[in-house]
Write the C-alpha cells for this entry.
Amino acid sequence: MTAPATTPSPPPVTASAARRTADRPLLTRLLVRPEVGALIGAIAVYILFWAVAPSFRPLGSLSLVLYQASTLGLMALPVGLLMIGGEFDLSAGVAVTTSSLTASMFCYQFTTNVWVGVAVALVVSLAIGFFNGVMLVKTKLPSFLVTLGTFLMLQGLNIAITKLVTGNVATNDISDIQGFASAHDVFAADISIGGVSVKVTVFWWIASVAVGSWVLLRTRFGNWTFAVGGQKDSARAVGVPVARTKIILFVLVGLGAWFVGMHQLFQFNTVQSGTGTGNELLYIVAAVIGGCLLTGGFGSVVGPAIGAFIFGMVSQGIVFAGWDANWFQFFLGLMLLGAMLLNTWVQRQAARR
Amino acid sequence: MMNRSRRSTRKTVLVVAAAATATALLAAGCSSTGGAKAASGGSAVSAGKAGTAHMTFAMITHAAPGDTFWDIVRKGAEAAAAKDNVTLQYSNDQVASKQAALVNNAVAAKVDGIALTLSTPDAIIPAAKQAEAAGIPVSAFNQGESYWQQAGAIGYFGSDEKVAGAALADRLNTLGAKHDLCVIQQQGSVALEDRCAGVKSSFKGTTDTIYVNGADMSSVLSTLEAKLKQDSSIDQVTALGAPIALTALQAISAAGSSAKVSTFDLNQQAAADIKSGKIEFSVDQQPYLEGYLAVDALWLYKINGDTVGGGKPTLTGPAFVDSSNISAVYQYAVNGTR
C-alpha cells in the first residue's frame, strides 16, 4: 500500500504562511501561529485572577485549575484535531459517559476484574468513533447531523441500558472489585510534587498534547488532517486518503472519550447515566479559543490545550475570587468571549503586518 | 495482488491475536471480590394484585432524563400500578410547554386518570383543567403544593422544598454549624433554589450558595475544592442530591477542610456513607411514596370515590435519615427504592 502522499506536502495554510513570512520579523511569524492569541489570552486571565483573588495564587490552586483543564483538554485535543480535519463531533460529551457506564456495568455484571471492563469500554468507545466516521463518509451528510444522531442515540442508550441492566439509573459500586486500586492509580491517582497534590490526568494530558502535536506537525497523517479540512477535493486529487483520515480522526475522539470516561469511573466509582450532555460544546469552545477554525483546515494541538486551560482558570478563578454565584455563568461567558476576541484581534494584527 | 494478500494475512493474524487476547483476558479476568456475584438479590416490592377492572393511568413529570430521584418516584408509581391492576404510561419533559402537551396527549388518548407534577403552574393548570373537563381525574405530586386545588386535582402528595430546607437548617443549628455552603447542581431549577432558600431562611450562621455543573462530576469536584480552599471558614456543605454529596466528601478531603456534609435525597452509596458516619444526615422526601400515592389515590378515586388528604396536601417529607435510623432504611436504598 503505497499511498501517493509519501512526499508530504506541508500543511497548506501554515505552509503558505511560512513562505509568506519567511522574511518577516520573528514576532510576526510567532503571532500567526494559531495558539498565540490564546496564549496571550491565558496570560491575561491568569494575571487578572492573580490580582483579584489571593487564594488563586498558591500552587495548590493552580493544580486544581490544571485538573479541570486536563479533563476538558484530553477531549478538546482530539475534538480540535477533528475540527482541523473539517468535522464536528457532537456525541463526544455523552460518549465519555457511555465509556464509563460500559466498563462499570460489564465488570460488575460479569464479576470480572475491572481491567476487563476497561478493555471492553475501549473497544466500545473506538467503535462509536468508527461508526461516526463511517456514517459520515458513506452518507456524505454534514458531521453536525451525523453526530447529532449519535449524540441523541447514545444519550438514550446510556439511560435505557443502565436501567435495563442495573434496575437503576446509576451504576453500582465497583470499588471492591479486583483491579480497582490499580486502575485508580492509572486513571485517577493523586501525585504529590513538592507537597502539591496533582491529579494524574494532568500528566496524561501534557503527554498527549506532546504526542498529538508531533503527529500533527511532523507526520504524514498530520498533513492529511490539514489537507482534508482545508481543501477536501484537491486533497483527494493529490492522493490523500480523505475517508480514512476522517474515520481515524473520529476514532481518536473515541479514544479520548474512553480515557476521560475511565477517569470519571475510577474517580467517582458510580456513574450517573444522564451526565455528560453539554460537554461536547465545551470541547468545541476550548478548541475554538485555542485558534482552531470552525471551518476546518487551520489550528493546532497546543491551542485547544491552552483553550482548556483558560476555561479551567475562568471557572475556578470566579470561585476563588468569591464572585456572586448567580453571576457565575455570565462571567464565564463574558471571559470566554473576551479571550476569543483577543485571539481574533491578535490574528488580524499579525495578518495585517 | 501480492500486496493485498499480504495485507489480508496480516489482518487475519491481527484478528486471531485480538480474539486470543480477549479470551485470555476474560479467562484470567474474573474477580473474586465484589460485583454482581457478591450482591444479595433484593426483592422488589410486591403487594399482590387487585381484582378491580383494568385501567390505564398516565404519569407526566418535569423530570430530567436519567435522574436518580425521579427513577425512584417512577418505581413507586409502577409498584402501585401493578397492585391496582393499572397500566402506567410514564412520560416526562423538563420544558413546561412540552409537559403540558404530554398532558393534552394523555387526554386525547382517553386515559382513566392522570398523575402530574405542577412544576410550572401557569403552563400545566390549563392542561389539567382540560383533563377534568373530559372527566379524567388528576392527582398532583412533588410540586404544586399551593396550586393543586386551583388545578382541580383530587389530592397532592409531596414535600415543600422550602420547609425541607428550613428543617435541614434547624438540624444544622443544633449541630452547631457556623458557615454552610449550599451546592446547586442545576442553575435555575426552582426546586433546588427553594431548598437553598429554605436553608438560608432558618440557618443561624452564614449561608453561601454555589453553582456547579451537575452533568460533569470532575468540574463539580474541582469547583467545590476551589471554594473550600478560598473560604476556610466553611464548616458545612449541604448537597441537594446524593451524587453531589459523595463528590463533596472527596472535595473536602482534597482541600484539607474539616467541613461536614449534609444532603437531600439518598442513593445506595450515600446510604452507606450515612451508615459509616461520613455523611451526617439526609433530608428525604420519600420519592417512592410520592409516586406510589399519586397513582394509588387515582385508583381509590376511580373505584370508590375516595380522596386522600381531606382537602389538604399530603406531606411525604421532610423525613430525616441519619445514624439513628439508617439501619432500617439502608436495605431499601440498596434496592433503589429509597
